[in-house]
Amino acid sequence: MKVSARNALKGTVTSIVVGAVNTEVTVEIASGVEVVAVITKHSAESLELVEGKEVYAIVKASDVMVAVD
């Protein structure tokens, strides 16, 4: 796999919540550290996602902000 995005986080699918149009996929990238992605239902089916499958969470964003109260 080759992608231009610099932030590819390898992890394991821990949860899949299928909706009518979208699917919420939770990926554990380290012990106790999770990333949640919302992808199309069609994409989830095409990727054959199941709990326990190793995947990459790829973050493609122009900005990341940090805030405090």
DSSP E strands, number = 4
Total number of helices: 1
What name does the CATH topology carry?
A: OB fold (Dihydrolipoamide Acetyltransferase, E2P)
For the record, the count of structural domains works out to 1
Query: Going across the major beta sheet, what is the strand order?
Result: 3-2-1-4
What structural category characterises the helix and strand content? mainly beta
Output the radius of gyration. 13 Å
The helix-strand sequence is EEEHE
Strand content: over 45%
What's the architecture in CATH terms?
Answer: Beta Barrel
Report on the architecture of this protein.
The protein is mostly beta strands and 69 residues long. The protein has a single domain (7-59), classed as RNA polymerase II/Efflux pump adaptor protein, barrel-sandwich hybrid domain (OB fold (Dihydrolipoamide Acetyltransferase, E2P), Beta Barrel). It is 9% helix and 51% strand. It contains one helix and four strands, in the order βββαβ. A four-stranded antiparallel beta sheet has the order 3-2-1-4. The longest helix has 6 residues, at 41-46. The termini are far apart.
